[in-house]
Amino acid sequence: MFLCRLIFLFTELYYKVIDVNFIHILILSYIYKKGKLVKKVFKYMLIIVAIFLIIDIGRYLFYPDINELKKTNPIPTAFMQYRIDEWKDEKRDTKIKQKWVKLKNISPYLIKAVLISEDDKFWKHDGFDTDALESAFEKNLKSGKFGFGGSTVSQQLSKNLYLSPSKNPIRKIKEAIITYKIEKNISKKRIIEIYLNIAEWGDGIFGIEAASRHYFNKSAKNLTAMEASKLASVLPNPIIYNPKGNQKFVVKKSNRIYKIMLQRGIVIPEFVEVMKVDSASNGEVENDESSNIELGDVNLSQTQHITKEATNNKEQQSSEQVEQNETNE
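Below the sequence we write its predicted structure tokens.
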């Protein structure tokens, strides 16, 4: 009885991970026949499957060639191809809308909003946020579901570029290998540039330039802080959520992202801007470094260090607030 239960458990796990009906049938036949021959076949099949898994996972140590990402824009991605195949199965005539833009031509508000939403420790970690992974693991244990979570921008990039969106342990191992290689060989600037240009932002809409023009009829470099917050808020599921909609999730998350940017000094409050205009009109021009920020042509040092002193003092506090709010939800 114990052996039967153990075999059934193995069958269910294997079926979910690899989805091979032949193995499923073979195991069932072993349970009912209990023959020595079948037992031997079962043993050898397990060995074959183990070898197959080792080869399947191990090949990602050598493939793909990550160095190509340094100079080549990876279009289309594996996830784009997944959507194309999905549309074909559904007999839909949907086309991919995507336009590549350099990082300097993306609003720093958008960059900061996306990192606050998806990976607040992006500039500090080496591809894996252990705190986020631990938190996600605890949530999975409490819910009793194997939902993963806690993925960094680099992990999401690995999945979108080379893997399927399926949620299984084998795919996560492959993702981890590719993430390590990406972080080892590609600069952080290039990683976030690729991510923002291939991320899905709607049905057939990929990349921030296409998303910005579709939703706000403007270039990505001209996005405001609130528009950036709204676009960042839908990344968890851009097919369901609309940046311009009034869905409760989008409203709450975009407002929370915007509030954090205010706390960190990334966004200058409107009343401060008005005061600067009034002072300038009276011949009293204030010498404030934060007023020199230009959205259309901001280098990465500005993106990373806008009002750095305020950010360092408030970043940890605001990050903990977001994690606490999301836990409560």
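The first helix runs from residue 2 to 17.
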